Amino acid sequence: MSTIFSQIVAGEIPARVVYEDERTIAFLDANPLSPGHTLVIPKDEYERLNDVPDDVASDLYATIHRLVPAVEEAVDADATTVAFNNGEEAGQEVPHVHCHIIPRFEGDGGGPIHAIAGETPDLGDDELDEIAADIESNA
Ligand code: 5GP
User: Fold this and answer.
1) Backbone phi, then psi, for 73, in 5-degree steps?
2) DSSP assignment of 34-78, as one string?
3) In degrees rounded to 5, what are phi and psi of residue 104?
4) Of 37, 65, 96, 98, which residue is the catalytic one?
5) pLDDT of 41-94, one tens digit each?
6) Per residue in 88-111, pLDDT tens?
7) Which residues pair with 99 in a beta bridge?
8) 33 in contact with ligand 1, CB cutoff 6 A
């Protein structure tokens, strides 16, 4: 099954494409959270960041790196929130990896990435040490 974003890549549905290279493409979000809200995706379909091969990850980041200043300049933004919803439980609706570049403006009423958390955990030093060690051993 092809995602809506693969259909954009294939030119089957229209999009306001702002950048394209061999392996990545960027286009305006159809329901922008602010002017210039842009999505950057790998052309090949991977559901989550975890599924993206190393070489594609490098290309994807290179495009994000290029687009952040381009988007900010285009809409005269003060800043950007740059983020992935990585998995359904994190709010990912389209199962094709995509990076949101969301222009931010002084006094826009939005929040920081920290605002996404529900209840925040109260973790002790031992738990933090254990979590850090587990992540380190998986990295
Ligand atoms: P998610 O919630 O999966 O992180 O974000 C999906 C994003 O894709 C949403 O911001 C939504 O507005 C955008 N989107 C969904 N369908 C389309 C489409 O057909 N075209 C474009 N340009 N954006 C879309």
Assistant:
1) -65, -40
2) STT-EEEEESS--SSGGGS-HHHHHHHHHHHHHHHHHHHHHHT-S
3) -125, 150
4) 98
5) 999 999 999 999 999 999 999 999 999 999 999 999 999 999 999 999 999 999
6) 999 999 999 999 999 999 999 999
7) 40
8) no
User: What are the φ and ψ backbone dihedral angles of 47, each rounded to 5 degrees?
Assistant: -70, -50
Measure the CA–CA gap between 68 and 79, rounded to whole angstroms: 9
Task: Say whether pTM exceeds 0.85.
Answer: yes
Q: What's the CA gap between 27 and 19, in Å, rounded?
A: 7
Domains parsed from the chain with CATH numbers: 4-138 (3.30.428.10)
C-beta 70 within 6 A of ligand 1: no
- What's the rounded Cα separation, in Å, for the pair 124 and 127? 5
